[in-house]
Amino acid sequence: MNKITVTNLVDFGRKTPKGRQTLINSLKAPKINNPDDGGGDYWISALSCLARVFFNNSYNLIGDKIDELIDKIEDAQAKISKDMFQRNIKILQEFEDFDFNTLKPQGKLTAFKKPKDKSIVAIKRLPLFVKPHHVYSFEENEIKKIGAIWFVAKLNGFRPEELAMVTDLLYRYLDINYSDEFEVSMEYCIAVDVNTPSHISYARIENRDIKSALLPTVDEMKKLM
Fold it and tell me: For 112-129, what is each residue's pLDDT tens digit?
């Protein structure tokens, strides 16, 4: 089976019974790249820029990227390309005055590499693909902790329970790969829907402020395998 992206999970939950079966069948077929996979090429201009700003606090990067995309719109011939660049600009404009410090702990963050062999989280034998923008360690009250941020994009955004599903998956990724050495931070395990924009930490799921659709979605997918 092909790896299952967050967009696959979200699309499955939104489809009719017939559409769900079609999606499952497509996941069993040879892989066809989908640019809208929660972090695909379609949104790469905005997502990569926001990821750099998050870690480097280089807010000028947003304005620079907007100017670059405006130039690309003027040079582009195809409407589909112009629309793509404009949608990326719209995302970046939403974050021009955003305080990225609210998404991360104070103090020094140590970035981790994200090897491909750690990118699959298996839940009930389904290979779910996790691609956070940053995984980092930090210290809090003399406790070594691990956190992560994942900027995700989908046209018209995610519903709250769908974004919570992304956060839930991210937390499981951290728990599987890093919990032997670090305490996984619930507060700083965060998925950000850049189209809304909104964000959800795992702490909100743990405190039952919001429900994750992850396990119900996996259960429904398994029924159709």
Answer: 999 999 999 999 999 999
Q: Which two tokens stand for residue 209?
A: 């402020």
Cα 172 to its chain centre, rounded Å, is: 14
Q: Rg for the chain (alpha carbons), in Å?
A: 18
- DSSP output for 119-156: SEEEETTEEEE---SEEEEEEETTEEEEEEEEEE--TT
Q: What is the pLDDT of residues 146-172, one digit of tens each?
A: 999 999 999 999 999 999 999 999 999
Confidence (pLDDT) at 41: 84
| Global pTM exceeds 0.90 | yes
Kindly write down the DSSP assignment for every residue of 180-220, as one continuous string: TTSEEEEEEEEEEETTTTEEEEHHHHHTTSS---HHHHHHH
Determine what percent of the chain falls in helix, strand and coil, rounding each to the nearest 5.
Answer: 50, 20, 30
Rounded to an integer, what distance in angstroms lies between the CA atom of residue 67 and that of residue 167?
32
CB 186 within 8 A of CB 202: yes
